[in-house]
Batch of 3 targets.
Target 1
Amino acid sequence: MVDLFTGYGANAALRAERGAPSAWDEMFPDLTSLTPVEARAAYKDVFAALAKMTQEELRGRTAALASSYLAQGVTFDFAGEERPFPLDAVPRVIEQEEWITVESGIKQRVRALEAFLADIYGPQAAVHDGVIPAGLISSSNHFHRQAAGIVSANNVRIQVSGIDLIRDEVGAWRVLEDNVRVPSGVSYVISNRRVMAQTLPELFVSMRVRPVGDYPNKLLQALRASAPASVDDPNVVVLTPGVFNSAYFEHTLLARLMGVELVEGRDLFCSGGRVWMRTTAGPTRVDVIYRRVDDEFLDPLQFRADSQLGSPGILMAARLGNVTIANAVGNGVADDKLVYTYLPDLIRYYLGEDAIIPNVDTWRLEDPLALEEVLDRLDELVVKPVDGSGGKGLVVGPAASAAELATLRTQLLKDPRGWIAQPVVQLSTIPTLVDEGMRPRHADLRPFAVNDGTDVWVLPGGLTRVALPEGELVVNSSQGGGSKDTWVIGTEPDFFSESSARNIQGLVADQAANTRSAGTHAVDHSPQDKPLGDNTEQQQQQQQQASAAPAPQRKAGEC
Amino acid sequence: MLSRIAESLFWIGRYIERSDGTARILDVHLQLLLEDPWIEESLACQSLLHLMGSDAPADRLLTRKDVLATLAVDRQHPASIAYSVKAARENARRAREIVPTELWECLNTTSARMPRKVASEKTHDFFGWVRERSALAVGIVESGVSRDDAWHFFNLGRSLEQADMTARLLATRSLTVASGPSWTTILRSCGAYESYLRTYRGVPSARNAAEFLLLDRLFPRSVVFSISRAEQCLREMEPRTDRVGVTDQAQRVLGQIRSQLEYRPIMDILNDLSTQMDIVQEAVSTASEAIGDRYFPTSAVPTWTGEAS
């Protein structure tokens, strides 16, 4: 019956024999047996539903997921060919109780990062108080002096964040990196859920999966809330680099679901300290720009002069308070991996709290002692550039060749500020359907948070990315990664608000009652197609038979 | 044009539109049942059955499967998609000499390929297929039929059915929460979600959504748009201009209901939505009957009874 999971534990058993560290598996507590039989509580229902399927059946469904994505255009370019964005049929499940911790950890982190950015581009109190060295800030590639003094009306800089989390060898959540520039991937969360419900409905049955469709609405509210104070009905636009951008699908989806205009740089122009877009009805003022263009390309007057993607003067308009750029310019300094190492201190400094979700242990290579230790143990550590995101430029020591390590060594000695080192964390694994069958694969999680100035709202779930090659620890869609639908399941329906849940039940009952009392309207029918008492058809047939029948008789009579 | 033919065209229009509308409503509501765990499935399914004008068995709990079996593929159930598809095809067969061959083949194929069972993971595909077939049929008529009476009767049927479908949908105000999601569902059922978002800049509110689906003069599935188009078809079939009033009963009924909707404050309608929508459905039925009485009088005379014996 559990043929789907046959051989699932093979690799883990092998690793255990060799004494290598093994990852935390999210579905099965015990991987020593070849074919696991008992799932963790969160996965019980999913496991039961999957166990009823054969591998062929599940592969058929996976093919259906892919063809649906191909039809919708949820694709990425692979060697000049459109491939559907890979979505695995097995969802990741997180229980509501656990999710509350994750959620509060994310909220805390976003609040701390907001305070940090406001401080860095303002009084720099943290520097004066010696919490973070001034040199670190000014040497960050993404610290932009041009951003100083630009503040949105509600003081929010991080309207959208995508903080990457992982679970370590004991299943504890840790922050892998902060992402408060232009985090992408939320469109996959929304479209994954839809296509999963269409293709694998039986998995949803009996599970109370918290819906994710509210995101565009929350985002729009947050963007509107950040608009210049003088504007009554703000005009929000999404700024995209254009159709060739790899996240273009996401830009169109967000614009579509928010009902706002999707603009490119050439659709905008600045005049009189304001930003306008060219429309058939003449210039229309723009109040909030949700930009999906990097800082460096936003304004050729301030950053790269050769940029075609932005609009000259946009930053001046923002400085004058006539337009809000979301997320704010200069946020990149908070994504710097060296700043990341200070985050627990910064949380304590700004919020007076301890970090709810800890960082991954990190060596700062500017410290000579740390550098020495890291150089010694280069083959057992992960080394990352401080300003790369999504695994760009990352070197995994145990997997690297001697030549690669030698190059890395010279790079580290030349520019210790540019790198950090971390121990190899075995990311948690989740069952994933690959060529050999159902196998454990490493995954991370990017929960999306929207800050509207009064509250930080965290999308229940987020984007789970999974590395498809065996043992691969770098999880990124540009490096052959897949994704999973992420379910936060409420153990009881009225978890977050008892009254609201009861209201919903009541409403449903009310409405059902309403319809009944109003009387049901049967649909109209053509007199000839009426469902009951219609015997014309039979009569016509009978008549044909009747007229056909006498003929042979007559013939017979003639004979 | 023969009354019998005109009648067939009228009903082809209605049945095509009905299969399309039913598929949309079922698709979105059944999907929502999966995505939103806080809906009571049985109640929602009952409500869905009532919405389509059929009685639900009160003695047992209903599931998605029951709704699918009843409203999608049951060939005997008068409100099902299969029934509408079959009826459209039968009507086309009766008017085979007038109906363009392309349309006939389209309807005939649809009817022949109508599945008897739909697996739960294929429902979305199935509804998508029904919508595509309807779109194909409508497109064939749009692009290849002269704008004569045949076209007017077809469009008249379509418009009336559209008004009826939208009114039905509005009447129950959906099966879920009072705020955002349920209106989103209704809008999506009508394929109106994206137009709505563009028109109202994405702020979902009961008032705006109802206004859009009831009164928008530009959105083709809104009640007012559909009724206006039906009225226009009627006027063009009989271009006489009287100095006083309107003599055609169907035009009268439609004009009355449209004015009622257009000139009444929107909050008045909203506060009493299900009754108001009942009146709209009533008016559509009355208009349909009036059109029948006037243009297809033969249908009242089924004369085969004597010959069978």
Note: Chain A touches chain B through 63 residues (CB under 8 Å).
Target 2
Amino acid sequence: MTDTNIGIAPPESFRAAVWSQFRKHKGAMFGLIVLALLVVFVVIGPLVWQPEKLKVAEALKSKNLGPSLRFPMGTDQLGRDQLARMMAAGKVSLAVGFIAMMIAIFLGTFVGVLAGYFKRLDGILMRLTDMFLALPLIPLLLVMVMLFRDKIARVLGPEMGAFILIVFAIGVTSWMHAARIVRGEVLALKEREYVLASRAIGASPRRVILRHILPNVVSPVMVAATLGVAEAIITESVLSFLGLGFPPDFPTWGRLLYEGLEYMQLYPERVIFPGLAISLTVLSVNYIGDGLRDALDPRIRGR
Amino acid sequence: MLDRADTPRRKLVEVRGLKMYFPVTAGVLRRKVGDVKALDDISFDIYEGETLGLVGESGCGKSTCGRVILRLYDPTAGSIRIDGVDIGAADAQTLRPLRPAMQMVFQDPQASLNPRMTVAGIIGEPLDEHTQMSKAEKLDRIYELMDAVGLNRNFANRYPHEFSGGQRQRIGIARALALNPKFIVCDEPIAALDVSIQAQVVNLLEDLQDRLGLTYLFISHDLSMVRHIADRVAVMYLGRIAELAPRDALYDRPMHPYTQALLSAVPEPDPEIETARKRIILTGDVPSPANPPKGCNFCTRCPRVMDICQSVKPALREIEPGRFVACHLYETTAAAGSTGAPEDHERNQQGATQ
């Protein structure tokens, strides 16, 4: 048996195949590099760039400065170094964006698959989804934050508490679109003959879902996920702007943007830098999602 | 095939009084307003090692029949015994260990293969489910199966979209064979292929049957292909079996008016016979299976309809040894003819089921 198999390539590793296709996607590679640079900027940046400690009198003198060698991105209205604030803010914004997106996608896919595959759960779960869609989100978030912020802050500290609460709040209020898309897709997929073949083998629903349904709903989920990152970052900014996100002295890209808003006409760089960072994140994530979706589809991968 | 008919054969599949009704719901509250009678009281046997052809027009319940026998649907009533075990009402847990013995080959080779799995993954899926083979053993078995269905081993890492229809159907057959089944339901396995490939696939199926001793339920609407492959043929009309007979008898001398009409539609290759051929043209449409006629299902279109057909459903009776017909035309002859043969058959059936 073994000697007849000589010359036959062993099954190519799935990851290697996906990676080699992903690398062919120019946009995706561009997105990956930009995102990697952003992550390096917010994680390694603070270790390299130590802003000088200013006394109060100095800080008052050096407020609202334009970009210079001393302050590469200028200073804010309190004389704080914008570059250092951008780095600290990015860490939070990126973390909020990705973790909230993951929660939303996980919830959405879970609900969508259950509703689509099990007819009995369909009615209940989709009505639940409709209910969440019908809720006005911003007031709901405000109420959630108002009710729970202090309780969580007492346990985890004000910053970590706010982070967990915001991520969770954004996650549980933005899964509905993913759920609807996934449900529709699953309804179509479960009537396919390969699902029937799998059932004829005696595979349990869990195996059928993991092996046949989930890999085939990857494309719409990927699209929903990339849009979700952007949405989460923006929603966090809105919350912070309304004073219900992170504490006021705690920078996020969204907050920097809103702080800069009133000085926009005098010091446009106060808005441009955080805006650019958010846009670059969203754009790169979109391209990565695009490339990943193509790479995961064998019909495109073969070419 | 003839010598097989003489020796007593073991029944592998016994279907008795099988009914499959799909509910029709309407309104906001989804109240049940009726049934689509996809299968209405069907009974037949399949002997070990034979091929039973199941023919009929679109929508007559052929595919539903195949799927119910494999318990992909839950039947409304009736019993299905495969190898002596009644699976008609068995739950998923009881069914799982029985699944390897019965498999299915699907109609559309494009839709029956997961586009995101490699050929090795597709053929190996049944092995993952039912065996504890190591990776190397599994790969060996996959290569063995690919050899058996005539696929190059180098194709193992490719994806379904890279294959032609015939090759895809071979992959589907290899998957069905993976667990050494005894009984395979072929649900129009050649309907989506072009003619030259049809012959290849049918020859492959026959070859596998000879080598592995498989039993087929071959569902098709292609009468000439059924004539080629089947040992016995069942003709279905609107959820009921109209006629069930050995192949040659059925094709030479169809008894049920529907079978006669169906066979008269098969074109002849010889142009002289073709021009002289007399077709029985049926008028009207197939009645809705949600609202079948009160009497015989065929009474609305039958060229030889009688009064009794409008009111009484004819039962499937054995007219001659091995020939079952559900038609009032033959009821009198059966009653007047020798009473010995049908009773003999009755006894046989009971003996076999015990």
Note: The radius of gyration of chain B is 21 Å.
Target 3
Amino acid sequence: MAEHKKAPLDWEKVKERLREADGALFRQQSASGIKSILKKRAASFAASQKDELESGGIQAVVFTLAAERFAFESAYLKEVCPASEIVPVPCTPPFVLGIMSLRGEVISIIDLRKFFELPDRGISDMNRLLVLSSASMSFGVLADTVEGVKAIKTGELKKLPTLSGVREDYLAGVSPCGITVLDAGKLLADRSIIIYDTAEQA
Amino acid sequence: MEREKEFRKRLLATFKAEAMEHVVTMGACLTELERMPPIEVQMEVVETIFREAHSLKGAARAVNLAEVESVCQALESIFAQWKVRRVNQSRELFDTLYLAVDTVRSAISAGPEEHGVPAEQLSSLVAELERLSAGGSPVASFDAKFDPRTIEEPREPGPAMTAEAPPAAPTSAAVDEAPSSPVRERLRDPSGTVRIPAERLGSLLAEAEEMLPFKSEASIQSERISELLAMAEGLRAELAGAGRLSAPPGLKELLVKAQKRAHSLEASARALSKSARRHSWELGRMIDGLLEDTKKTMLLPFSSVMEAFPMLVRDISRKRGKEAELVSTGESLEIDRRILEEIKDPLIHLVRNCVDHGIERPSEREAAGKPRKGRITVSAAHADGNTAEIKVVDDGSGIDVGRVKAAAVKNDIISPEAASSIGPEEALSLIFFSGLSTSPIITEISGRGLGLAIVREKVEGLGGSVTVSSSKAGTSFSMLLPLTVATFRGILVGAGNQSFIVPTSGVERTLRVRKDQLGMAENRETVTIGGEPYSFVWLAPVLGLPARVEAGGSIQVLVLSAGGKKIVFGVDEVFGEEDVLVKGLGPQLRKVRNISGAAVLGTGKPVPILNVPDLLRSAVKSGGGAVIAAQPPRAAKKRSVLVAEDSITSRMLLKNILETAGYDVMTAIDGVEAWTLMKTEKFDILVSDVEMPRMSGFELTSRVRADRELSELPVVLVTALETREDRERGIEAGANAYMIKSSFNQNNLIEIIKRLTA
């Protein structure tokens, strides 16, 4: 406080600097100039969008799991959120990791690693929950990290013979940049993942 | 146009609901009349049915349901005649009346566009009704003007009618004012009833239920604050003690300051604790009150499901050439409408089975010295607490146990050896198996096959149980059902390192038994409680979880019962009873063996709810006692964790978290110290930081993996490094889990440790 009293503000200098800043903002661009820039930008956005759609592209959410990169088409992804504690459910097959509470509702969690023969041990902290959902089915899968949304051209996907896990059907293909794209629609529609079991049948 | 359509749709839905009520009442009235009650009662009933027909006629006209209108018109004429005692009460009359009510029912459910009743059938029915209403012998003293065909509309009540039946006139006039306005009728109702759509009540209840977890959370928090208070008190006392010791003046001054702080800390904690306790108590009281009152809005008398049954029995027995009457008691017992809704089909199954297979033909009955007419009794009674017992009893010939056994063996439900060893009661309960129900032989010979598996599934789904007993004098099915479904009480237990909720309704008692109360009988483990032997199993292996055997001299057990069977289950711990909110397991887990759903506790953590009837069946299959022998007893020992971490704060934090979770914790300040400790002590798991002086977490992990003794030791790396390369290095080194400090979540860590050390 004491220092401020010793050195009062030089108002003239301040005003001058404000004028300069003002000039820099409004002198630089005429109205038409701004318009043309905006137009250019809009055109470039539109072009890239069109490009993807024309070549049969999908929007996919890319995530990592056990040090591999996977992707789901974003249309089937209801939400991505931090994973909370998973409670295992006894008497279910190993691919069912358990249940989790998501805003008061209970959701079952599936272990994708079991479908693709990925190592169980090690390295997965399973921090992210991806909720997949269709009209009649909904469950969560866990991922280590979620990288974000990426446009993937379906035409460029390759079916690799080496990727023959237990559930090969769920693979849509591998993208040129090495992302394994999974067919969430097939996964959701697969009746064999539904557990319907009673003590009597056992 | 759209709006008009929408309105019409709503109008039709309203009409359907209202019309069905009228139909049900009319059906009930007919049954009553058929019993030939005393004349005053009869007149009252006739009056009711007359008004019902009239109201329904008006309502049907409003929605253009001509079929219903014409039948009601004819019915009205008959009952107008009946009121003046001009109707001949023949069996033929009742048959036609029942047919008329049935016709109205099907026309209503079909709707106006569908024409649910063929035109010829309709016209012949109406003609028949008209014939019957005209056919009564006229009473001599009656005014000739009073021709049945002139009283088509009670709008102009004839003078004779007023004179003959005084109470009828004002009522029919009242009906006339607003024949299809339930609101106005209700307004006149002195009891002050309001009609609310069930759906709206349902969402109200759901919202009230959502508050339950907060009630338990509030009480947990209040407890935690009390603990905080105790700590503050301790701190103050210790500082006061320290203040009495001699110390240099500077320290003394600091101590005095700290004492003051501790004092105010304690005071704040005390005030907070007091208000938290009051809060939690008030909240609990309010939520309980709200839930209880909301639950009451869901209650309906048992009679509401029974209304359709007399007609059902009449119908089936006529078709089967039998004679049977239905007697129902306990109709005023109030049960949650959702339970009544669910129980309706099972009840229909049971009652139908009684007529189909239980009651004999009239000639057989007479030969056996029984009255021609069979009797089916449906009774509802309050059993105890929140339980109702609904019984369906017939006085037929009973079930042939021998044939049930034979069919069960034939259908591979039990082995021939088992069939010869089981008692009659157990054999009888075989009829609930689905394999048996589909067998044509069993339905033909002893009956009672069809649908009994479904009955059991439904009843058990409601948290109830069903049993059967049978003798030469008849068969009795008894269903024990909860009266309300809203608050579900469960006992929180620990087994196989997990928590579960056991529905309180399936728990007979919880207690501790001494090891010496355990024994073996017929190759099964048993436990003797109060001089009685019970089968004994551990819960964990029945659920496929690792068993843990207490080192102590006693075991915590639950006596579970369902369907008349009791088995004692050993658990690791019983935490207490709670009100819980029941949820499904999601669409992917439609039905899991032994698990009926999940409850979300106040902490937001879901806990599986066990299915007691399933558990009893699984326990019998798992062979009971054999389980324990297979699992060598292991002293319940705390798991030990070694934490390697160079930051003192992180070290203390980890130590604290892990100790709270029940682990023995030792700490090391770097990789070298950790390595030395591991060579001298035994640990169940290593939790290590990556960046540490002298030896990093990666190096430590590699050494562990390379060591012959330690190579299997689970390793969790906790680190600030989160690049892909670091993760890969972690895999290379051989870590079992890799946690990023920035996303560090203590539950996650404990969960991982639990998984790795299980």
Note: The CA atoms of residues 48 and 166 of chain A lie 37 Å apart.
